[in-house]
Design goal:
The protein has one helix and 28 strands. It is mainly beta and 325 residues long. It has a four-stranded antiparallel sheet, with no helix packed on it. Strands 2-3-4-5 form a four-stranded antiparallel sheet, with no helix packed on it. Strands 6-7-8-9 form a four-stranded antiparallel sheet, with no helix packed on it. The longest helix has 14 residues. The termini are far apart. Monomer.
Length: 325
């Protein structure tokens, strides 16, 4: 499907489904960034700022939501950043696929420090990263790798994924467990933090395309399934699974995030929308973008706020996650 066909099908879905109107009790705000900058992922910082990766231009950016202003810093020649998260040191850490490195950017002086992967993993296709409770940084590479970095010493270990290509989203639970999703492998996996070994856990839907994962407050792993259009949850405590299909005929679930109230947020490329799922009522709310081709590739947040990158429109979107009367 080419871009024109995709936009046409998305528009048809929106017209045919009146439930995709903006949900009034929740307030949405958009922050335009430079056209063509190539937004990909973001993460809110404790000081109120929002850091974002601009894969198209090889930049890391910092948005000030108070006035919509932003500044950027180049990550180096050939940079193509993907994921970003805030470390225990308060700095943004980036999976920098263009230079096959993990990048740290000083939040004040914007100095860039690179931790390069060993040469034998020359094209790991780095995706996303997360810090465990001991301050170790874990990351995924879609070419079939995952790894860890000790920020204080710079020591890095890279492991081959048990089922090859596909490692994509990654998350840490409240107890400190680290899990990742494999898009091409259609599974999730738990990493043993001591040995580095990964144990595969198969979702109930075959070939579902597990893309991103996020833990809720109980340590359950929520999964966005790109191929099936489902959101599923795995409870490691008893090994159980539950799964729900997103609204509509052909949903494509890309990103997933669990907020501070344990409500689950996802992005649906087919619907051109962000979707909220309440596990208690099993009800979906759908927040359609006001522009076509939003393509929100990642979600993150803080209490009361959901943040996402509209990669198709090079805008950052914020939704207040607490309803206002």
């Amino acid at each position: 499907m080419n871009r024109r066909q995709f936009l046409a099908s998305s528009a048809a879905l929106l017209i045919a489904r009146p439930g995709f109107a903006q949900e009034a009790p929740f307030r949405t705000k958009y922050y335009p960034i430079s056209p063509g900058i190539g937004l990909h992922d973001l993460t809110p910082a404790p000081d109120g700022a929002v850091w974002f990766t601009a894969q198209g231009k090889g930049l890391l950016g910092r948005l000030d939501p108070r006035d919509g202003s932003f500044k950027t810093v180049s990550l180096g020649q050939g940079a193509a950043p993907h994921g970003v998260t805030i470390g225990p040191d308060g700095a943004p850490w980036i999976t920098e696929g263009g230079q096959n490195a993990i990048a740290r950017v000083d939040p004040t002086g914007l100095k860039v420090t690179l931790f390069r992967l060993p040469e034998k993993f020359a094209y790991a296709n780095l995706n996303t990263g997360v810090f465990d409770k001991q301050g170790t940084y874990w990351f995924t590479g879609q070419s079939g790798y995952y790894g860890r970095l000790a920020p204080k010493t710079g020591e890095m270990n890279v492991f081959k994924a048990p089922k090859g290509i596909g490692p994509y989203g990654i998350t840490v639970t409240p107890k400190g467990e680290v899990w990742y999703a494999s898009l091409a492998g259609s599974h999730i996996a738990r990493i043993d933090l001591a040995s580095g070994n990964a144990t595969v856990v198969e979702p109930p839907t075959p070939n579902q395309g597990s893309r991103r994962v996020w833990s809720d407050s109980k340590g359950r792993i929520w999964v966005s399934e790109w191929n099936s259009g489902h959101v599923s949850v795995h409870d490691p405590a008893d090994g159980s699974w539950k799964t729900w299909k997103l609204p509509g005929e052909r949903p494509r679930a890309y990103a997933v995030y669990v907020d501070d109230k344990d409500k689950v947020w996802l992005t649906d490329f087919s619907a051109n929308a962000i979707v909220r799922f309440d596990p208690t009522t099993e009800r979906f709310n759908v927040f359609a973008s006001d522009k076509a081709n939003a393509n929100v590739r990642q979600l993150d947040g803080r209490p009361g706020e959901l943040w996402g990158c509209e990669s198709g429109n090079d805008r950052i979107v914020m939704i207040q996650t607490t309803a206002h009367g």
